[in-house]
Structure formats: C-alpha cells, structure tokens
Amino acid sequence: MELGQKLEILAAGARYDASCASSGSSRNAGAAGGLGSSTPAGVCHSFAGDGRCVSLLKLLYSNVCRYDCAYCLNRASNEAERCSFTAEELVRLTMSFYRRNYVEGLFLSSGVFSDPDIVMERLVEVARLLREREGFGGYIHLKAIPGCGEKLLRRAGLYADRLSANIELPTADSLARLAPDKSGAEILGAMRFIGDSCAEERADRGRIASTPRFAPAGQSTQLVVGASPEDDGRILGLAEGLYRRYGLRRVYYSAFVPVLPDPRLPGGAPPLLREHRLYQADWLLRFYGFRADELLDAAGPRLPADLDPKAAWALAHPAFFPVELSRAELPALLRVPGLGATSARRILATRRAGRLRAEDLPRMGLVMKRAKWFLSLYGRRLAEAPDQASLRALVADRPELAGAGADPAAAPAAEAEYAMRDLEAATPGLGPQAPGTRAKAAAAGTEGRPSGAPAGTASGGDRAAGAAAGGSARARDQLELAFP
Amino acid sequence: MSAETWSYDGSFEGLLTLVARALDEDSAPAFVVSAARAGGLFDSAAARAAPAEEGAAERVMRLSRRLYAAAARAWMSEEAVEPALLAVAVATGRRGEAALGDFASAELRALAEATRRVNRETHRLEGFARFTPGADGLLVALLEPDHNVLPALAPYFQRRFGREAFALVDLARGYALVSRPQGDGTPALEALCGAEALALAPRAARGGDGQSFAGNSPGAALAGDPNGPDSGEADEAAALWKRYFAATENPARRNPRLQRQLMPSRYWKHLTEMEPRNR
Questions:
Q1: pLDDT for B72-92, tens place per residue?
Q2: How many CB atoms lie within 10 A of CB B55?
Q3: Cα–Cα 20 to 30 A to A227, which of A6, A33, B25, B240?
C-alpha cells in the first residue's frame, strides 16, 4: 500500500484518542547535535476541522487488532481496510514533519495485532530509532499496551516523554461487557508500574543527578463517556483516584461516538455537553483544590447541564460566601465562580502592591459579571445576591437547560462497586496509596487538595470542612487567614 | 508624570536609554515619539531623539530583569505603550518589582496587555511557522506577524533546530533573521534586510518577477508547482501532511467555527494544510 494511503487509514484510526498534548517535558537535543526540543508549555501547530489542537503526529502503528471492543472502529469484527507502518516509515514521517514545524513530535498507538509484548516492542523500537539513531529531541508519546512485560514499559519510559494506558470505561463491569478482551487489572497494573517508575526516578535523581529520565511528562489515560451507564460521580471518583494513586497528569474524557451499530451501545449524538462538564470538573480537581465528592455533593450523581460545576458548588454552599477580597487567600478565591486562576493571582499581586480599593476592581481586568455575587470588599458585598433561583439563572452559562442533567441518558447509579475498588482487588500488591504518588502530586501542584474547603458551612459543606481541617496544617492556616 | 514629550530613534537600545533616563530622573513623560512610527515627522523626531547610550541595558537589567523583559515586549509590540512602560519603570525604581504586579495601575495594565499580545503572537507562530527546505538545505519560514516578534522567535527555533540552519522571513517588515551553526556547532544569528531577505523566500512565493511577495500563497506553490519548490522532498512531505491533516479530523465533531477561532484565518495564507482545496 502507498504510504499516503496508510497515513490516512492509520491517522483516522488514531483520531479517537483525545490526547494531543506536547506539554510537561523539557528537552534540548539541539545542543547535543540532534534535532529538536520540547518546552514545558507545549505547542499547537494547527487546529483540525473539529477544532482540536494538532500538536503531535498521532498514528497507529497498525490497525490490525485481535480485540473486539464494541465502541472501537478497529475492532476485529469490523470489516475495515487493515494495514501497518514499518518503523522506518514512521521515523521518516516524524523527522520530516518535525523539520517543517508541522508537529511537536509523535503520538504512537496501535491495534493489538499480536501478543502485547510484540506490539509494545514495535512501538518501543520506533522511539529508540528516533532517539538513538536520529538524535530526535522532540516529543514522543507512546501507548502502553496493557499486558506487556514491565521490562518493555521500562524501556518505553526511557525513550518517551509520556506514556498512557487507556482505562477505556469507568467500571470493570462495563469493561467486561464492552471490551471483553481487555483486563482492568492489566490496565491498572501498567498505570501503577508507570506511576511507580516516575516516582522512583524522581527520588533517585535527588541523589544521583545522572539518573536516566523516565517519562518526564508522566502518564495520562482516556475513558469513553456515554457508552456505559455510569454517572458523573462514578467517573469523577475514578479520575480523582487515578490522579491520587497513580500520579496521572491528565484524564481525558471522550464523548461516545456511535461509529458502529451494536446492541450493547446507545445510539444518538455524542454527549458533548456532558464531556464538557466533566472536563470543567476535572479542571477543578486538578487546579482549583476541589474534591470529587464535594462537586457531586452539590449536584447529585450527575453534573447539572445549565451550570458549570464550580457555580453549582457555590450555589449549594451559600455560607462559604461572600469571599472577602481584601484578605482571602488563593484557595478561597479559586472557589469563586467567574474568577479563574489568572484573576485570583492578579488580586493577590495587586494586594501585595498596595491596599485594594473598590474603584480598582473594574480596572484590574477582572470579569465581575458572575463573581460579584460571591465577593465582598472590606465587609461590603459587591452585589446583593437575589434569591437562589434567580441567582442560578444569573450564573448559569446554559440557563435554558435548567433542571436537566448534563447526562440525560445516564441510568441511575448502577449496582457495581467503584472501579478502583473492583480493580484493585484484582491487582495484587496495590495498596491504598501507591508509593510515590504523593511526591508526584506535589510536583503537579495538586498537594493540599482540600485547602480551600469551606469552614463552618452548612450541611453538605461540613464534611468538606472536616476533611480540610484534617487534610493539612497548611490548609488550615490558609483557611484561618481567609476566614478568621 | 510630566507633560513633556521624549523621543527616540525607534530602536530597542533607544527605548532602553529612555527607561534608564526615567529611572535616573524619577519621572516619566506624558508622550513619547518614536522615529519608527513618526513617518513624516521622522527627521525632526530623530533630530530630537536622545542618542542610544551604552550601559542603559545593564542599568535596567540591574534594577529588574522583569522590567527589562517588559521593555523588550513593549518594543516588539510596536504600539504606543512607551509612556506606560516609562511610568512602570519609575514605579519599579521607587517600589521594586511589586510595581510589576500592581494591576490597579492603568500603566501597568496597558503594558501587561501589550506584553500579552506579543507573547500570544510569539507562541502562536512557534506553532504556525511552516519551514520549507531551500536549495542549500536552509529551512525557510515566511511570516507576516502582527507584532515584531522575530527576535523572540529566533532563540526558540535555535533550540528546536539545533545544528540545522534556518531563516525566519518577516514579509510585513521586509527583514529576515538567519541562524547558521558556526564551527563549534553553536548557532549564530544574522539579520538581513530588504532584497537580501527577500531572496531567501522560495522563488514561487515571491511571484513571477522574483521581486514581489504579493499574490501567490507560498504553500500552494510548494504543493505542486514545478517552479515553486526547491526540493522534491518538500513536495512529498507537504502532500503527506495535507492528507494527514484531513484524516486526523473527527468528522462526528466537525466544528469549523472553533477551528477559525483558535487559528484565525489571517494565518492561513502561510499554512500548508489550509490551502483552499484542503479546507
């Protein structure tokens, strides 16, 4: 088959993987006589017609697959044209696209065309050729093929910036139903190995500077949303568990697209709004100090459709507000709907520069449209909050959807246990807190998660406040500064 | 702030001289005339411009590297933010770097906005620049930046390309920065102006007479015009890239509005994958 035709088929096969990040790593092979560098922030080289960033050359090594996963275009029972690259073809494409600044590097996944060890070995060989023979210093993201040996994962991590094993579905039950050939224990086993290896490398590097890097941009995963009946609570609980236990950098949520008819799958349009709300909630977990159970306390098992999850939390915790602009610390400011991280830091910087005055606020470039209902300055509310119902309409970004869940198709909470518990039971040697994830979390800036939790709020907030108080002394100090 | 007008020659060194003067005098002017922007006033503005002083850069850097970086971004923006920069410099001289976080100050905000625009344009072009190998293997990118960002882009691409020689050609401002490795492998930067810069662009991109950049899309020329590309391999790579770009889109989630929002159409002219028949 002609190279261009393979490229089309194997790009189309890889496009359902949402991850395209080239961030989190820093290399400079140019200095060593090679080609390429990568910067911590990542670079988007283009935007495809679906609006997604094109950063990496995202390809399958092969779309030949033994597995028969219901939701996947490449499943064994689907009659599709099958082909595979050679390692040399992939190296040539990557180097040539990289020199022209089309991409930041390579994202290589594959159908499981043979034993997991053999598939993984092929992927590792492409990365090895790029790094060792071509002196390539750009970004490499390799899929970990669950079930492959740890030695291969180890080698993969030495060449790749990021590794990822896709968890695919939110519970072991759904995995067994829709992806019967995959094993949750193997998937989590691969994640744990990668998480531990990253943590070990970091610890060793503290003592021996020449310790070889292991997947410096860490690991990510992806799950399909809307192909199985789990609610948002279960999905976010799983995501939080993955962040905490395996030190994941990112969990990607992919709205289920019915590409093939299957009696096990729902039909209809992809649940894009639900995916969007999950990403918003995920952001709150990673950067805003929220915990999954707080977000779902406020919303029930499903995130609301009309509101972003932060606004939903705020409406459910009126006693946390108003947040006092002249004294509140970052964790409290980050909980104000409409205030992002940039605005919160800007408030702190301006306070350091001098006393904050009411007339400065509109001039500071802060968007107060939603935030004003939740803020005070020197004891005076910026705006007197109306009753709850009107406030909800004022802070909603999709008020026309009030009363609906972001996830109208989802069934009520299913009978199965949380995936983490299920799968851990089947993964020997996995403790409640995998080693090293704490260090990882600190590196990712997610330590001290409960820092901004409400003190002395009513009902649902009590649990959060208790957790915050027990969480860390630092968090408590920050709370006292914010709410003396 | 005094009601005076200060002027400079439009160069970065000239601007740093004004910053140093503001620090020394502990006062900033209300107006600044740049000879580069003054157009017809050029002669009189230049005549009154303070000569660039040796040591101004060191003077500013010693006080605050962040202030120096802000001055560089202000200069690259080509916007009339000099009075804001000088006011912020005076505040930094009095209160230290806390002044650089004082968003209650209108001057700091204006400076931060200009900086943000420059940084955004730089970051976008780090991704959107498309290089084509020329006759001697020189990788050439044609750009028309909104701000004068080549000085910020060049170090980025030096890290990226290592020992490969490359050129960034600013078609809007008529100059180019060329980076070539020296004997020891470290890249050295050279600036070319006017016709010399123009000569770097692939022939087809310059138009039929070889003198004008106007008209043809260089991407289109590289895709198949036998007179355009200087390298057969570039053809193949560009053609493969376009096929990849079309195939990587998820048709179930087509969203051209979002695409245009994230990648405004003013960049499309130089993007291989955005040639009309590929859209």
A1: 999 999 999 999 999 999 999
A2: 11
A3: A6
